[in-house]
Amino acid sequence: MGTSLLIVSANAFIGFLGDRQVHLIDHAPLLFMFIALAIGGIFVGGFLAKRIDGNRLRPGFGWFILTMGAYIIIRELYTLS
């Protein structure tokens, strides 16, 4: 799961940086907030991973990623119309 989250977050960050209209310095407070939340999530996730069986975490993570992907697709399609 950690590797999947790393790939998803790296992909999002690269997409963010690749947008030519983005001025990184303008969004620094937002990026720092997300970095702080991500670091907090790492610790919470590590804590929960020790207490919850991995066989129960994988399907939940899969459903979470599927739900987020569907939400993003629907949102993008809605903004196109």
Fold blueprint:
Layout: H1 2-18, H2 28-51, H3 54-80
Separate helix tally: 3
Rough shape?
A: flat
Major beta sheet summary: none
Helical coverage, percent range: over 70%
| Percentage beta strand | under 5%
**Order of SSEs:** HHH
Number of strands: 0
Q: Tell me, rounded to a whole number, the average pLDDT.
A: 81
Domain count: 1
Catalogue the unreliable spans.
none
**Through-space gap between termini:** 35 Å
Rg over C-alpha atoms, rounded to the nearest angstrom: 15 Å
Structural class computed from helices and strand pairing: mainly alpha
Fill in the keyword field for this structure.
81 residues, mainly alpha, 0% strand
Folded structure, characterized:
The protein has 81 residues and is an all-alpha fold. Helices cover 84% and strands 0% of the residues. The radius of gyration is 15 Å and the shape is flat. The model has no long low-confidence stretch (mean pLDDT 81).
Short description:
With 81 residues, the chain is mainly alpha-helical. Helices cover 84% and strands 0% of the residues.
